Amino acid sequence: MVVSQGFDAALAGVLGLLVGSFLNVVVYRTPVMMYRQWLNDAVGNLAKVDGIPSLWSLVFGPKANTPPALEKAADDAAKTLDALPPFNLSRPASRCGHCGAPIRFYQNVPVLSYLFLRGRCASCKASISVRYPLVELVTGAFFALCAWRFGLSLTGALWAAFAALLICQFLIDLDTQYLPDSINYILLWLGLIGAAAGLTGVSLASAVWGAVFGYLGLWIIYHAYRLATGKEGMGYGDFKLLAAMGAWLGADYLIAIVLVSSLVGAVLGSIMLVAGKLANKNIPIAFGPFLAGAGLVCLALGPDTVRQWIPFAFPLGALAL
């Protein structure tokens, strides 16, 4: 039995290394894809299109026309955007961010290529961030953990996907202070589907109410803080992320998630302070990495272990039914 568990974990761990390599692509390219889309939408709203009112006229009245200089700039920008080469998760092929040299398949083997190249580009010898192999190792470890607990099963695959999506949100929000809806929605729907199929150990009712209360809880805090201070304390992506995690872990788990996220925030904040990342106190700290980190901690420890360690965080246990 143990041998079988070890084989399943090792096999899943290797798959996790490969997935981790892909997650590095997702983390870098998803925000760029978002920026392109936003810029394209903004330019499209200002550019002149026959039969469609411009955003300018919708804001300032039907008789108001977009200033000619702004309209020309929007038209020029639209043409420039249209001329850009495709950019998505598969195109263009991976290349060095410093010299643009293509990365060959044998230079893209998870962890091993980094060690073989000694952390430097094969062409220009520029330094490669150690974060790339770390993401691969962490993803591989979570995949191995899920296979150890659940075997090579649909349940194990589902929880491995949970870990992979949270790793993406953790890093993207840490880098950009954005939590892409495209990833939050996948996380939410997988949690609800997993509960409906009986794969996550959470009832569908608890998953639905977890999503509802997860979103509304932070929504209320956000607006209360905004009314009290006139400032925005978090973004709507945080609401959606907690809603998605509520769908996975259940309504009674929400308080525990917030408590664990505080611990993750303290640890991460201390690391960033030591690294000099928080030298400027005017730079806001994203809340998403704390939430995503809390989800990963709960998965690593096991939901039942978290219940045992902080039982006071589960006063709404009836909602798990």
Task: Explain the overall architecture.
This protein has 321 residues and is mainly alpha-helical. It has a domain at 153-320. Helix content is 66%, strand content 0%. α1 (2-46) runs antiparallel to α3 (68-82) and α7 (181-196) runs parallel beside α9 (236-249). It is globular, with a radius of gyration of 23 Å. The model has no long low-confidence stretch (mean pLDDT 88).
Notable characteristics:
globular, 66% helix, 321 residues
- Topology order in helix (H) and strand (E) letters: HHHHHHHHHHHH
> Which regions contain 5 or more consecutive residues with pLDDT less than 50?
none
Calculate the terminal CA-CA distance, rounded to whole Å. Answer: 32 Å
Which percent band covers the strand fraction?
A: under 5%
For the largest beta-sheet, the strand count, sense and barrel status come to: none
- Principal-axis shape equals globular
Radius of gyration: 23 Å
Query: Which percent range fits the helix content?
Result: 55-70%
For the residues shown, what is the average pLDDT? 88
| Helical segment count | 12
Number of strands: 0
Provide the structure class. mainly alpha
